[in-house]
Every structure is written in C-alpha cells, then in structure tokens.
From TrEMBL:
GO cellular component labels: ATP-binding cassette (ABC) transporter complex
Transmembrane segments annotated in the record for this chain: 27-48, 63-85, 106-130, 142-165, 172-192, 227-249
Organism name: Kribbella albertanoniae
GO molecular function, one term: ABC-type transporter activity
Keywords for this protein: Antibiotic resistance, Cell membrane, Membrane, Transmembrane, Transmembrane helix, Transport
Protein name: Transport permease protein
Domain of life: Bacteria
Keyword set includes Phosphoprotein: no
Organism classification: Bacteria, Bacillati, Actinomycetota, Actinomycetes, Propionibacteriales
Predominant localisation class: membrane
Membrane topology per record: Multi-pass membrane protein
Similarity section: Belongs to the ABC-2 integral membrane protein family.
Compartments, as annotated in UniProt: Cell membrane; Membrane
Amino acid sequence: MSTGTTTSPYVAVLRTETRLFGREPGILFWGLAFPSILLVILGSIPSFREADPGLGGLRLIDIYVPVLVLVSVITTSLQTLPPVLTGYRERGILRRMSATPVRPSALLLAQVVLAGGAALASIVLCLTIGRLVFGVRLPSQPLGYALTLVLTAAAALALGALITAVARTAKIASAIGTVAYFPALFTAGVWVPVQAMPDVMARIVTFTPFGAAAEALGQAAAGDWPAWSHLGVLAGWAAVLSAAAVRWFRWE
C-alpha cells in the first residue's frame, strides 16, 4: 500500500511553470523590475519632488506611484501572458495535455497565477520604494485601493487572454500585445497623468479600463473611496473582455 501523497495536477503544473518562469530574465526584468526602475528615474528629477498647486498640492511623484502600479499589471498581462500561452498552443502542448489527466485549464490557471503574482510583487516593490525613498504616503484607503487593483487585474488579464485567443502564433501574440501595450500605458497616465490631462481628454480616458483605474487608484491613495463610476467601468471591461476571450479561445 502506498503511503505517498498524491500531488494535484494543478499544483504540479504550477510548480513546473514557476521554474520556467524564473528562467526568463526578460520577463523578470519587464514584469518585476522595470516599473520600480522607472519610479526611481522619475523620482530623481527634482521637479517631480516639488508640490504642484495645479495638482492640489501633490507632487508628480505622488501621482506616478499609482501609475507605475498600473504599469506592473499592464506589463505582466499584455507582455507575458499572451506569447507564452500562444506558444504552448502553437507547439501543440495544449492539445497533447487534453488527452492526459492534466487538463489544459491547469496550464491556463498556472499562467494567470504567475502573472498575478509577478504583478503583486512589482506593486509591493513600487509602493515600498515610493514610501521609503521618496516619502510617498501609502494608500489612505487600502480597501478601495485593493478592490481597484483586483478589478484592474481582472480586466488586464482578460485582455491578455483575448489576445491569446485571437493570435495564431506566439510572434503574432507578441505583436498584438505590443500594439495594445502603448495605448494602455497612455491611458494609465505614463506620459501625462490623467489628473493633468485636458478635461475632455481626461473624460474620454476614464472610459478606458486603465484610465478609470488610474483615477480610482489616485482617489484611494488620497483617502477617498474610489468613485463607483470608475469601478463600474473596470468591472464592465473585465466582464466584456472575459466573455470575448472565452468565446474565441481555442486549445489548438
């Protein structure tokens, strides 16, 4: 009689994917280190550390910490998830898994967990550097901040899954992910914070998932509960993108 314990197929796949994930220096750099490095670079600019009356007395670095938190989520969702999953499908790995006790959904779940974990680690690093190095206050409304991040991650991962669904090869997935990446960064406020955009542009941007997320995170960081309109935009995008990804996703 065997006394060994049986490892869940999902746990086994997660362990394997975690080892493979750790062997990708590009993924580790862009997903984990890049947002924090960019934060240090921006924080080194003297004008970013000066209070701006036009921003309600906030400093630009105060505004950019939530923006770079978004960059962490966007990068892992659009630059990591689509090419990896599409590559597995392209090489027939998902099709072969469908004939084994380990279902392809285990691989999908493992990739979502890894992407979410990488984003969380990057977020914690950004918040820590912002607090310890530049004196940026931690979110004064942590529950609202956490809820916004959960909805943002759901929308971003759904967008990554949708790219995986429509891309036939890993190269195409990378190309589509890159095309989507830069508009996502713009709406998140990387080039111009949403709070500093002209009124018309800001209103338009807040109807996008990452524009709404930028505003909601900014509100939560300042101690206010995020506006339900922004949370509703995030939830709506997450639902629509998830439904589209499920509709068009294929295992082979």
